[in-house]
Amino acid sequence: MNSVHQIIYAKWLMTCEPNNKVLENHALIIHDGVIKDILPSKEVSLHYQSNEVHEYSTHAVMPGFVNTHTHLAMSFFRGLADDLSLMDWLNNHIWPAENAWVREEFVYDASLFAMAEMIRSGTTCFNDMYFFLQATARAADVAGIRGRIGITVIGFPTAWAKTSDEYIAKGLEFYAEYKQHPRIGATFAPHAIYTETEATLIKIRDLAEKHNLKINMHIQETADEVNQSMSQTKLRPLRRLNDIGFVSPRLIAVHMTQIDEEDLEIISAQKPQIVHCPESNMKLASGSCPVTTLQKLGINVALGTDSVASNNDLNMLAEMRSAAYHSKLITSNPEALNAYEVLTMATLNGAKALGIDHVTGSLSKNKSADFIAINLDEIETLPVYHPASQIVYAASRSQVTDVWVAGKQLMKNRVLLTLDEGELKKKAHYWFNKINQS
Ligand SMILES: [Zn+2]
Q1: Distance from the CA of 376 to the center of ligand 1, in angstroms?
Q2: In this structure, how many other beta carbons lie within 10 angstroms of the beta carbon of residue 150?
Q3: What DSSP string runs through 94-139?
Q4: How far apart are the CA of 145 and the centre of ligand 1, in A?
Q5: Which of 74, 132, 142, 247 is the most exposed place for a label (fewest CB within 10 A)?
Q6: pLDDT one-digit tens code per residue, 294-314
Q7: Which one is the CATH code of 65-353: 3.40.50.920, 3.40.50.300, 2.60.40.420, 3.20.20.140?
Q8: Cα of 76 to ligand 1 centre, how many Å?
Q9: What is the CATH number of domain 2-63+367-406?
């Protein structure tokens, strides 16, 4: 008889791998924050005992969502400016607001607030691109969530850094500081090709290789971006990046709503990771990422919300539903992107994109115990013929009851255990009053 830290009984275990297997009446055996075993519930007492037992008898237990593209600290800009085109939205609203307000304290408060929203909707891992990296990391440490924090490099001065070299130097300091952290790490995050010089991108390419870091970048988000590149260089952004050896499995290409045959050839040869952000792309009318075409080429496609200023939430349940509907609509094929495929995009594929699928992204032995429980025994999701269907097409955030990261419980029956909801709301009101009066 083995004594273990936790035993988690579930009505349904959505493993995500192998082959999206759904195990009914099974249990997760957790020890030292790691999934030690998965077995039928009725066999547990023959092998394991624990002082901590959790029964999710009407729940689907699944890997936590991996939100593969966020700008967390923009949470206090939610609803500040809506219904605008990307460049109008950025130039006339978002960048001026960031210029006025984004400082260390703001980033900490707003990131912590975003993490509460993520935990309350079942996200256990994020991939962020913003400024004041240590502030986001401190927030993640407090929240107990897993994340990758981008060394943002953008070709204009902000309160965080003045030059590309300063962005990189500060980012590398952050990388060194968090290198050994069990849950938090760095990626490179040059903002976009239209905000960088080629020389800076080459420097980032070499540093990313040296330190074995992933590189996130907004690429071909809109037709305007492609047109601007064509008129300046006669080349599409992806082609220019490929010409400097930037496109490889190390690259996390975010958005990719403008893909032509030449792009497909590059993608097919170099196998970058792609992050689909359907709600942000639809809201800004940026375009459509052809997910099913990419998947046929064997490309890993993950899912991200983008910031709440262009979405307007960090809701991976909604993002999955939008991804499924969007693919069906643009391909005129109702079989495109089924419920299991989007569940995998929202979990395992995100972990793969970040290079941490040996740690998280599925319920598998020896992976970290990063999982969530969704109560399907509600009016909104009964009856349950297929739990994946209910999760993707019917469940709402309020049905996510419990969230765990690395064997630590972050939410229990909708109550946050690491964060104080009242305090977070006070902070939101405090920053709203400042921003709104300016
Ligand atoms: Zn973005």
Answers
A1: 32
A2: 29
A3: IHHHHHHH-SHHHHHHHHHHHHHHHHHTTEEEEEEEES-HHHHHHH
A4: 20
A5: 142
A6: 999 999 999 999 999 999 999
A7: 3.20.20.140
A8: 16
A9: 2.30.40.10
